[in-house]
Structure formats: structure tokens, C-alpha cells
Design goal:
By secondary structure, this protein is mainly α. The protein contains eleven helices and two strands.
């Protein structure tokens, strides 16, 4: 079965489980693990980036060729006129060759004869050069047009390659999300129990120890949703009628980059959430890292709130997440490192099993509190 068919079968199976009420039963692991899927996302994204870079380079060469063609074509009429005049002059010289010989022979002395021959030779050479220049310009024009046609074709091939890589990456991202949905459905009972336990602790005014070793109030999350927010839109291939001809400008596989659209959507939401705190203003870094590592964009900012009040009380330098015993030199490096670590060690988004790994002793309170913050972003 090819990868696309396997992926489609996986999505259909998940949908059937959800509709039949069997989704709460733990499901077997997919053919690809999360790490394998994430690696495929990164490989496809890298292939897409490479293809887009090639398109940009080819487009620069296309622009240069078009400028060269325009320059040659603007100079061609004048060169044709000079070549035509030169051809007429050479024809006249040929027709009056006897008279020219008489002119040479009628020279008063040898020096005058040499001067006359030199003069006639220069006239002939000048006119021949004009004809050669026209031939050279014609050859350059033809070569430039042939190169332009070839580069257009190559650019369109790169655009198709980029589109295929992009769709593959988006499909892999969506499959990761489907895994997260299946995991959330399988753990829904544990999630609900954790929220109820947290609610009871909150009613009693209890605090809990977070991963940073600090006491923090318990927050009560709403009932967990089994459907995490998508990190990327579902790919929609362009209709056939919109495809360009081979020698037209290359297709742009991303009129507006999906990554840029994602970042522009999430960065202001995260910035609004972090406003007034040390991590404020870094929403774009959170959003870019979430896209690059295929992680729920709300997850890392929410953890920073529970672990350090959004960077206010860090137990290590720029470590707002209770992440091991790591120091980072600046917030942007720290954010990207934390999101990458979530991707590698935990997966797409929060879950009871991930909470038990991140903050084992008080995972129920931690899960409910982080989820509550995520819901507010």
C-alpha cells in the first residue's frame, strides 16, 4: 500500500472509531511512530524549503535573461540598420573594384598607395564588423531565449516538486494530529479524573509543587477536548485549470506561506497572553518553533505560566519551564529548545500520560492547570 493510501486508511479508521463510540478504547500504534512521523515532517519541510530556494534562484536567472533579451531587442533595430548600410557599402565597393584598383595604382608614390590601401581596408573591415556584430547579437538573442525557455521549464518542475513536498509535509502534520486525537480519546477518562481531582484540590485551597519545585495554585480546566487544534491547514491542490503553461512564470506553491500564515495567526494570540511578563513579545518565536517542530502552539507558553509565571520566577537562567537543570543565554534560544524538547519527548500536545512524564508527583494538578492556561490562549 502506498503512503497516501495508508494515510487515508488511518484517517478513515480513526473517524469510524470516533463515530462508533469505540474511540475511548486504547488503539494500537500506527505504522509510523510519532518520532518517525515528525522526522518525515521535517524531511518534507526541508525538501519544500530547498525547492522554494531553487525556484527563487531560477527566477533571478529568468529575470536576468529577460533583461538581457530586452536590452538586445532594443539595440537590434539600430544594429540592423548599420549592418544594412554596411552591406550596401561593401556591395558598392565590390561593384567598383576596378575603380578602386585604378585609385590605388594612380597613387603618386608608394607611401600614398599604402595609405590608400589601408584606408580602403579599414572601410571594408568596419563594415564587416557591423555585419559580424549583427550575427553575434542574433546568436546571443537566440541563446538567451533558449535559456529562458529551459529555466522556465525547470522552475515549473521545481514548483511541482515543492508542491508535492508541501502536501506530504502537511499530510504528515495532520497524521500527527490524528495520533494526538486518538491518544486524547484513549486517555479521556484519565483526563476527566485529573480535572475532577484538581477541582477538589482547588476547592480546598490547596497548592501543588510544579516541575520547577515551586508551589503554585491549582487551576481547574474545562472538560478536555479530544480534538486538538490543528497546527496546519489541510492541503488543497490547485485545480487543473489554474495550472500555468510550461513556458509561463513558475507556479507559486504557496501564495501566502502556510508557515507565515500560521505564525501570523498565533504570534499575536501568544503575545497577548504573555503581555506584561518577561516572555512578552516573544510570541513569534513560540509560533515559529511550534510550526517547525509540529507542536501545539499553546503548550509551551502555558507551561511557562505554571512553572515560572511566564518567565517571572525562573529557577535557572531563561528556564521558564522547569526543564531539567538547563540554563539558556536568551529567551529565543530557550523557547526553541523547549518546544523542540516537547516534540521529541512528549509529542504534539498535552495529555495525562505526558503530564505524568513532565511532573510525576502532582501530575493531575499540573495537567489541569496547564490545560486551563492553554484554553485561555
Amino acid at each position: 500500500m502506498n503512503p497516501y493510501a495508508r494515510r487515508a486508511a488511518t484517517l478513515v479508521t480513526t473517524a469510524m472509531l470516533a463515530s462508533s463510540g469505540l474511540a475511548a478504547i486504547p488503539v494500537p500504534a500506527h505504522a509510523e511512530t510519532y518520532d518517525e512521523l515528525q522526522q518525515r515532517v521535517e524531511e518534507c519541510s526541508a525538501a519544500y524549503d530547498e525547492a522554494m530556494a531553487n525556484i527563487e534562484q531560477i527566477q533571478d536567472e529568468i529575470d536576468e535573461n529577460e533583461e538581457k533579451i530586452a536590452q538586445i531587442e532594443s539595440e537590434m533595430p539600430e544594429q540592423r540598420k548599420r549592418a544594412s548600410d554596411s552591406l550596401k557599402t561593401l556591395y558598392k565597393m565590390q561593384q567598383s573594384s576596378k575603380g578602386l584598383i585604378d585609385l590605388v595604382l594612380s597613387s603618386d608614390d608608394f607611401s600614398q598607395m599604402i595609405a590608400t590601401v589601408t584606408y580602403l581596408s579599414r572601410i571594408q573591415s568596419k563594415n564587416m564588423n557591423e555585419l559580424l556584430a549583427l550575427g553575434t547579437m542574433n546568436a546571443e538573442l537566440s541563446e538567451a531565449k533558449d535559456t529562458l525557455t529551459a529555466r522556465h521549464a525547470q522552475a515549473n518542475q521545481e514548483a511541482e516538486r515543492a508542491l508535492e513536498a508541501k502536501e506530504e509535509a502537511l499530510a504528515a502534520r495532520e497524521e500527527v494530529r490524528q495520533q494526538a486525537i486518538a491518544q486524547a480519546q484513549a486517555e479521556q477518562a484519565a483526563a476527566q479524573a485529573a480535572i475532577e481531582a484538581a477541582a477538589k484540590a482547588a476547592e480546598e485551597g490547596k497548592t501543588f509543587t510544579n516541575a520547577s519545585g515551586q508551589e503554585t495554585p491549582v487551576q481547574v480546566a474545562p472538560s478536555p477536548s479530544p480534538d486538538p487544534e490543528p497546527i496546519a491547514p489541510t492541503p488543497t491542490p490547485a485545480p487543473e485549470e489554474e495550472k500555468k503553461e510550461e513556458n509561463s512564470s513558475p507556479q507559486n506553491p504557496e501564495p501566502a506561506s502556510d508557515r507565515e500564515a500560521f505564525v501570523n495567526t498565533w504570534a499575536p494570540r501568544i503575545d497577548a497572553y504573555l503581555a506584561g511578563y518577561p516572555l512578552g513579545g516573544h510570541g513569534r518565536t513560540f509560533a515559529e518553533a511550534a510550526w517547525d517542530y509540529n507542536v501545539d502552539p499553546r503548550w509551551s507558553p502555558a507551561i511557562s505560566c505554571i512553572e515560572s509565571t511566564k518567565g517571572t520566577y525562573c529557577f535557572r537562567s531563561h528556564n521558564a519551564w522547569g526543564w531539567g537543570s538547563v540554563d539558556w543565554p536568551d529567551w529565543d534560544t530557550a523557547i526553541r529548545s523547549h518546544v523542540a524538547g516537547l516534540s521529541r519527548g512528549y509529542g504534539y500536545t498535552i495529555s495525562p500520560s505526558n503530564a505524568q512524564k513532565y511532573c510525576p508527583p502532582t501530575w493531575q494538578e499540573w495537567y489541569s492547570s496547564v490545560l486551563s492556561e492553554m484554553e485561555s490562549i
